[in-house]
Amino acid sequence: MTAYPDAGEAKTLGELYLQQVGGTADSSLARLWAADRIRRAATTECHVETISLVEQACCDDFRDGRIHCVDGWVLAQTELDIAVLFTIEYER
After folding, report:
1. Residue 41 contacts by C-beta under 8 Å, 6 or more apart in sequence?
2. Could you give the number of structural domains in the chain?
3. Inside any domain, residue 19
4. More confident: 2 or 84
5. Residue 1 pLDDT > 60, yes or no?
6. Residue 24 placed within a domain
7. Per-residue model confidence (pLDDT) at position 37
8. Stated pTM of the model
9. Which of 85, 67, 84 is nearest to 76 (CA)?
10. Staple partner for 28: which of 40, 65, 81, 86, CB 3.0–4.6 Å?
11. What Rg do the C-alpha atoms of the chain give, in angstroms?
C-alpha cells in the first residue's frame, strides 16, 4: 500500500472506482490475491521488491487492456485494486 503516500486520496480513488464499476472490496482483494506476483509481494518485507512487482503487474494491465478511466485518469486494474484496499475499515 506504499504505492499511495496519501491514504485519503487513495481511499477516494478506490471509492470512485467501486462506484463506477459496481464492484466490491472483496472482488479487488480476490484479484490481488489471485495474482501470483502480488501474492509474493505481500509475503515479502522488501519494499523495493514489492514496488517492482506491483509496477510490473500494472505494466501488464496496460499491455493487456485491463485499464479504467476514473476521474479523468487512466489507471491499471492493479493500482485501482490497491486503492480499494484503503476503503476497507479494519477493526483493531
Report:
1. 49, 50, 53, 54
2. 1
3. yes
4. 84
5. no
6. yes
7. 78
8. 0.86
9. 67
10. 81
11. 13
Residue 91: inside a domain, yes or no? no
Going by C-alpha positions, the residue among 61, 11, 2, 74 that lies closest to residue 31 is 61
pLDDT at 5 over 80: no
Nine cell digits for residue 12:
477516494
Name the more confident of 69 and 42: 69
Cα–Cα distance, 92 to 56 (Å, whole number): 32
Spell out the residues 6+ positions from residue 35 whose beta carbon is closer than 8 angstroms to its own: 57, 78
Q: What would the grid cell of residue 80 be?
A: 485501482
Beta carbons within 8 Å of 67's beta carbon, 6+ residues apart: 61, 74, 75, 76, 77
Largest alpha-carbon pair distance within the chain? 39
Q: Is residue 32 part of a domain?
A: yes
- What's the burial of 13, exposed, middle or buried (CB within 10 Å: 0-12/13-18/19+)? buried
Q: What is the pLDDT of residues 20-67, one digit of tens each?
A: 999 899 999 999 888 887 887 778 778 888 888 889 999 999 999 999
